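Practice problem: predict the structure.
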Amino acid sequence: MIQFYTEILQLPGEDIFGKAALFSAALHFNRDSVFKKAQRGEILSNVKIYGVVGELEFSDIVNFPEDNETLFNILTKQRVSTENLSLKIDPDGAHRIAYWEREFKGAIEFLF
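Answer:
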């Protein structure tokens, strides 16, 4: 999540990074803050972001697919190029290392 905040919210170090891979980003910890900052345009327009989340990643408390989709929709509305954004929501994806390992190659191919 540190890389995510650096990339998206224009924190110090933005000139060092430029790409972010979000594997089941846990946005629920700071949902309101992240969404509000993104809506205010406190984002880098040239950042490249790959997100992957599984449809099975939800509970009564948190909904990873919905939160990630909301963030990517905000980024698109804030004129982040759709060529630089990729959100994949897998029907069989679960909050497990094995799932993220499976998706790692796709993240690297998209970002580089």
